[in-house]
Write a sequence for this structure.
């Protein structure tokens, strides 16, 4: 199954307290598990920069990843971006099969 990276930036009005943030996370993840049971969540990170969070998950296809993104946007009044990711060793295998300069 493909690996996806999701970057999320919350609307500043979405959460008013640290406890509210934890509740938002619980509610959002509960909904993702209910609506997308085949998604495997690998990790989540708080990041410094233009986004607040970076999540890594595995999904069957891009449509499922888009569904996860839409669910997260509805909970956090958030902006999300989804990127596909290829493990480095797999990427090197793919590159090795490319033809050289013509």
């Amino acid at each position: 199954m493909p690996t996806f990276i999701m970057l999320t930036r919350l609307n500043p009005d979405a959460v008013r307290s640290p406890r509210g943030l934890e509740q938002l996370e619980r509610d959002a993840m509960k909904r993702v598990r209910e609506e997308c049971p085949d998604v495997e969540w690998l990790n989540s990170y708080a990041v410094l920069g233009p986004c607040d969070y970076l999540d890594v998950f595995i999904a069957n296809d891009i449509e499922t990843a888009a569904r996860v993104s839409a669910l997260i946007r509805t909970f956090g009044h958030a902006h999300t971006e989804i990127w596909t990711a290829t493990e480095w060793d797999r990427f090197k295998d793919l590159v090795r099969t490319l033809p050289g300069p013509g």
The domain at 3-96 is CATH 3.30.70.1060 (Alpha-Beta Plaits). The first helix runs from residue 18 to 35. Helices lie at 18-35, 62-76, 88-96.
